[in-house]
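Researcher: Last one for today. Full complex below.
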Amino acid sequence: MPQFFMELFSEEIPARMQAAAAKELVSIIEQSLNALAPREVRGFYGPRRIAARAVVESEAPAVEIEIRGPKLTASAAAVDGFLRKHQAKRENLIEQNGYFVLVRLDVARPAESLITENLTTALTQFPWPKSMRWGQSGAFAWVRPLRRIVCLLDQDVIPITIGPITSANISEGHRFLSPGTFIVSSAEQWELELERRFVIADAAKRRAVIKAGLRQLTASRDLDVVMDEALLDEVTGLVEWPVALIGRIEPRHMELPPEVRELTMKENQRYFAVRHTNGAPAPWFTFVSNIEAEDGGKAIVAGNERVLRARLADAEHFYTLDRRHPLDFYLPKLKFMTFHTKLGSQFDRALRIANLARRIAMALGVNAEMAARAEKAGLLCKADLVTGMVGEFPELQGIMGGYYADDPVVAAAIRTHYLPQGPSDPLPGGGAIDHITADPSRPQPLNEYFKPEIKIACAVALADKFDMLREFFSIDEMPSGAGDPYGLRRTALGIVRILIAGNYRLNLYDWCGENVTLVEFIVERLRVQLRNEGRRHDALSAVFAVDQSFDIVRLILVTDAVLAFQATEDGRNLLAAYRRGVNILRIENTKDGPHEGAVDPSLLIDSIEISLSHSLDLSEESIAQALSAEEYTSAMMGLANLRAPVDAFFEGVTVNVDDPALRRNRLRLLARLRDVMHRIADFSKLEG
Amino acid sequence: MNILNTASYADPMSFQDIILTLHHFWGKQGCVILQPYDVEMGAGTFHPATTLRALGRTPWRAAYVQPSRRPSDGRYGENPNRLQHYYQYQVIIKPSPVDAQELLLRSYREIGLDPLLHDFRFVEDDWESPTLGAWGLGWEVWCDGMEVGQFTYFQQVGGITLDAPSFEMTYGLERLAMYVQGVENVFDLRYNDTGITYGDVFLRAEKEYSTHNFEAADADMLSRHFEDAEAECNTLVQRQLALPAYDYCIKASHLFNLLDARGVISVAERASYIARVRALAKVCAEAWITGQA
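Model: Here's the assembly. Have a good evening.
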């Protein structure tokens, strides 16, 4: 079985695009060469190349293809058009199931011509996220200038021309360590030869080499490297021949907040942070160079140390300047910082957040003194936006405010008020949380949420989010489709997560400024979240449809109870009866409905219907009591008690009797069954 | 301590020797060595030798030093890494040559940065100038984690898609020189080999211009001059005088930067100013192309 191999060699491909590009190349081969039944398709990627290998058939077998055409009743013009499109004659058509069908015999084709033809087309339209033209490319665009194409079937070059480049069997190794070209004869030889020429073609292997290198450097000094997986991916795309190195951080720069240091190191320099084994930041950094230097990397380490020194000196400069004043000094400057052209300044926003934060804190049950601190934190939570450090590193918003605030409770609330931003983010109120190295596997312990200082942090975070949503909804800037430029969906989900985690009982309607659309938007985020987690979300819609509390915690509790009830035999049974009853009502309503209104006891003549009516009274009472006592399982018991009388009713009583008064009354009894059940949820929205 | 002393290069180059070496190197590559353009501008790309010459099909190779003014980057000479006036070394080759990356790396070798001793990298960086209506794709060139240049394949200028994409290289000369000389404060750079430092030449200017940019500049006057430059640019374009018109486009851009540094432009106004300068760049580019035909 012949082996197919292809390498697209170019100038440096952005690291973030490489893995996806290799995957795309694999899928192009699988699809375009489908007729050659490609197997064991494997992709490679690195800074200067994407490549793929596969085992293929030496020819595409002859196949008979059937293509469905127009209906037999179609016009002659339509049939002619179909024939023209497929370059076929009338006698190639057969009639099948009311359609013309074209039967075409495609003869066997050698792999060579098929590869040339199909790959040229597919590769010319390669979907790079961003592509460019260059001096020799004409109208053709690639991610960066494409310099060589290797395209082999076993050892033979398959001719392919993409833009200005025609395939050959020539590749290159490391730019500096092994200049010049070499002949490629197979995928295996290519990989081996590259390794001899200081290029590890296999990205997974490169990644492993980097990881091992970083570990070894730190372990030998009794240190730990912070293995940032996303950074590891990026660095894997930046080097062909990874050599891990370690450098020192100036002792005085260890006095900077670790977030500042580590952000600079990661974002600007792609360095990995280093910790002592007890978790404390260590005065070292590790990084990966792309070269085995003649001096063992001395000059490279010295150079990188100097670059970091300059960057941290800059950060230090801002940190010192910022701390010349207390945080509230910066507050008035927010007046000159626009939040949104239609929504005023960040100062206006700070005032609103302060007010909301105090009121939410009170609603969460903290005392007046603590509520005042929530207000202060709300007022100051945006002040760091005008400090030098945040101007320089916008990612540090909130975190710097936390360092610049003097009251530790206020500081913690400011530091975490943007949280949670993503699904794996920790929640507000934690200790030394930082965005950069936050450990999502360590959620806040549940009991923490009763602490007043945690409540304050959550109150400020909620205030920030409610204000954001209220303001943007007030100017009709709601997310639509894929467009959510202000991250309002994420904001709404943040509210939901905080309320659930803290078991905080807030009436969303009140805190959303009595905006029902906004409440629905927030609950919708919860529903989508449940759906994304593969959980039942129809029950939430059913409960929310009749909800008056606008309380996320209650919604979840009732939803869980409904789902548990639905899983019982009584539940399944009652729901079946419910559907039957609602169905009868729907049909009869279309005739002479609606059939609503009080059931007339004097018209209840059958003992079974009398018993059902009585049971409905009892259940309604017990459900109401259970709901107000928040005993949702007993509320479901109230439903379960209806099963027997409802079953008996459908078995022994005819609804559509001739006597119109009796019939109307029985339909009203069904309506009452529905209404009693709807005290808990609109069960018609429940699936299954 | 100087890191390059550990290498085989005895004496790192002075600031002016780096410029002379680059001139020599790029001159040999067929570039015309131009002198700085005599209008204030924010970056070497604004020089008509890049902006306008990038348009059309006529081949073009040029290299020059361009004083670049970034009024809001002024730090009164107190920050070791920031200047409101600095030098860019600019190279443009149109159409972009096949060996652009190799040429560039050779130029670094000439200055004393050996790619077998240092870690050179091409790190994704898309270049965009909203005021020029220009963009391109390329990289930051890194040496040991330090950005020592910006490499761009120009795609569009003045909103016009380029017929022949050019290779454009910008070296930040001070930063490069600091790296080569192993100096941590820009004002300590050896300007030449007679003991003159960068600070001797420019420290006073940094102090005075910072005061001017942030405190003293007359905002009303600058606004008026902006309006005048904008009007003049449009008038000259009407007469197909692309080059003089473009001078006023650059002036408008610099005046905007001064107003911005002065802190008198709101966020909303900012976008509108940028759009106005971009409109000027566009008409100038169109006039330039018309004049070539």
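Chain A has five domains: 3-59+111-196, 63-106, 203-322, 328-461, 505-688. Residues 63-106 of chain A form one domain.
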